[in-house]
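Working notes for the structural subgroup meeting. M.R. asked for a predicted model of this chain before we commit to crystallization trials. I am recording the input and output together here so anyone reviewing the notebook later can reproduce the run.

Input as submitted:
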Amino acid sequence: MNTYNPLLTPEPAFHGWVYYLLGIGNKQHAVYNGVQAQGLCSDTRKVWMYPVEYNSYAAGDAPLLTTRPDGTKEYKIVDHLGGTRMVLSDNATRLTQTDYAPFGKQSWSQGLDERLRWIGKENDNESNLGDFGVRKYDEELGRFLKYDRLWEKYRPLNIYNYCANNPLRMVDKGGDSMVILLDVDGASGQGHTAVLIGNEKDGWYLFSKNGAVGDGLTGESKDPQDGVYFNSLKTFKDNAKKEYYQGRYDEAFMLETDSKQDAKAKEAASKSVKEPYNVLTNSCNTVVVNAVKAAGKKDGAQSSLLDRRPNTRVRNIRKNNANKGMEGEVLSNERKNKQ
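Returned structure, recorded in token form:
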């Protein structure tokens, strides 16, 4: 990496670069700025890079601690959607405080300009639009400027809508998703859970354990579902009318992910499905929790034996993560085991 020397870099000759060091789930662990320049005595152009921040994360998608190259630290206070609302210095001085309108426009701000803004996204400096990856977002309109590639899933909605026009509870980060399923009556009222991972373009994969052969408590898994494929959520819903293992669910919600998070979640879920069933240590709950954790989401853990109950754990996952209700898209009114 070249070290930037302003004495060798005339002001008119350079323009800015930004380099991100990414980790699991595309989280930004370090940010470097740089300049591309032509030396005074050479026609060769080089890029000089220098670090500007190192980020640390907890369970969510937003960095909670930023360390600057000089060692100073900045502590982030984020809301339930992952947006930075306040930044404190290492001596508790307030550096930044920001409030947002429902669809992301800054309604009030004081202090330094924070790079990561509403729901943890950056603004594109050239267009002043929210940078959501494949689509740009206009906070004034509350709309994307490119149509949703999954628009057929949401026919009643505008194809440029942001998170079904419900920005106070939901986030829209990409096209890939995890759909968590819950059968509240399963296991004699303790609950049963499963997870669908994928998207409408490439299809969905169902992962679940359904008890053990014999006593149902330990041993070889009974009818495990290790990535059962459905080409769409509609197919899963239609199948729920005739198949018990798809037709048993009462609740469903979506956690937004990206393709890398999905790959990690599938790997973790599949590993849990393949292992012998144990009602305490490797049940249907384990499959879903491991998938959620692998995707970098909050896993709903509490210091309680009730964590082992799917009804409790899954509802904690829903409570602790931004999500979208999917009952209408996934559950059938003719569910086989609910008639």
